[in-house]
Amino acid sequence: MLLALLGFTLVVQLRSNDADHGLATARQEDLVRILSDLEAQDSRLLSEIQALETTRQQLNSGVQGREAALAEASKRSEELGLLAGTVPGRGPGLEITLQRVKASDILNTVQELRGSGGEVMQLNGENGVAVRVVAQTYFVDAQGGGIIADGVHLTGTFRLLVIGPAATMSTALQIPGGVVASVKNDDGSVTMDSRSMVEVTEVRKATALQYARPVS
After folding, report:
1. Fewer CB within 10 A of the terminal residue: the chain, N end or C end?
2. Is the pTM of this model over 0.70?
3. Local structure of residue 126 (DSSP, 8 states)
């Protein structure tokens, strides 16, 4: 093994000496050409390095951009799901109890809450039925008492859960001539409790659109 290593070293040294001797005996124009070729090769390598660095930066930026886009899309999807009522929600808000009220009182309450920052709502009836309140929700008085909300019959004392700025929503409901005053004038009652955490658990099935298509 030592002899083989020694022989390899001698061969490398001889080749190096031959190369050096060859350069030493080369003509000036040959040396100029060799130097020019080396400079051109060095320039090409530098260009390749710069191109690779640019590509790496673009790839890194692209990955980050895709991740940011995916995160934003996921966030937007969750927000739309909350608005459409297809996913449950939780957050600070109000628990509102309404007694001896009509469908119009419920509608006015929901509209006032939306105008004052209410984001996610659920209406519970004393009969154990709950309805997720969304943009297309409607309320009508039911025969024999109670109300119909989106085709579902709710009776008795109603409990409205709403996620949003509790102080702002409470103030909006209590403005002179507003929801609370109107309900009291009709011998009903509205009580509000601020909650640090409101759980809206009722969900709706996603609506299958038949005619509408997104504009690309």
Report:
1. C
2. no
3. T
